[in-house]
Amino acid sequence: MIERNFEAFRDPDLAKGLITQIRSRSRRPIRLMEVCGTHTVALFRSGVRSLLPDTIGLLSGPGCPVCVTAQGEIDAFVALAQRPDTIVATFGDLLRVPGSGTTLQAAKGEGADVRIVYSAVDALAFARDNPEKEVVFLGVGFETTAPTIAAAIFSARQSGCMNFSIAAAHKTVPAALGALLGRSDLKVDGLLLPGHVSVMIGVAGYRPFFNASQMPSAITGFEPTDLLMGIAELVTQIETGRPRLYNAYPRAVTEGGNPKAMALLEQVFAPADVPWRGLGRIPASGLVLRPEFERFDAFRRFDIQIVDAPEPKGCACGQILTGTRIPPECPLYKTTCSPIHPVGPCMVSSEGTCAAYYRYHQASS
Q1: Fewer beta carbons within 10 Å, N or C terminal of the chain?
Q2: Which of 246, 272, 301 is the last residue in one of the domains?
Q3: Are 90 and 148 contained in the same domain?
Q4: How far is residue 213's CA from residue 110's CA, in Å, rounded to a whole number?
Q5: Is the pLDDT reported for residue 25 higher than 90?
Q6: CA distance 18 to 230
Q7: Strands of 86-90's sheet in order across
Q8: How many domains does the chain divide into?
Q9: Which residue range forms the structural domain that includes residue 347?
């Protein structure tokens, strides 16, 4: 492989060299999955997809946090928002995700107090400023955001803020990868592993998964050259028949990740079996509050149950998240489903595959 350093991603000559390397080494058809939704968008927006030879196909995976949130979890979020004297704080992407009956946005239009925030700390500030209200933060995300939510819970406990709680629907990436590769309908030859999650869990976080699967894997950043580095590495692994777990993002990702953040996460959260859109219930793939923090669990506090619910009729979002279909193969894509009138979360989220295809696919094809 071409030599890498911390400034390599800014080197246009390196990018050209990587493109040449990919084209010369890629001899047989292969399918690579970008696990991360941000990678899906970056591959389209940067034009990297158009630079690849026809031998390389790209699939999206279950790396969009809003998209993999199960339909029953969305319904539970709406139920929390419809409670009286409650402020629900949420990331913006969740607002328009259709539940079985309505959306958070529609509930807001009917009088629910739903507010967009950038972090759980913002929600905690609402709780301190509105002691007469219950404030619930909708916790969606992977290992990237969960430590910040754990920190907010610690802060709430320390300050005695008792009107603050979390509706935890967090999920962990390595567990999902194991479930994904166990599917007989998935045909994939290599994985581009997410950058943001990897900053937290480190290369070591994937080792149990890689040792079990021997799937060619490369942790990748988000700049065009980062993406080309990851793809070139995977092509080399696949063509030589020598799979390995490779870190193509060393300026941000270390072997051990962020041990302080992960220790905080593990102190507040425990693994749990949780549902994923498209993948079903995966053992030990979610994060729930440990018993000593249960008073901050909004689902327990307000007796809101997460009930399994079917996905919207005709929506292929679940199959798109598992790499078995692409958006143009969904019968609703660009017909009844669009960014203005989304049917499923893959068209809503800024990291959603359908939204990325809708915006960029024509220009890149």
Answers
A1: C
A2: 301
A3: yes
A4: 49
A5: yes
A6: 10
A7: 113-116, 86-90, 134-139, 164-168
A8: 2
A9: 317-364
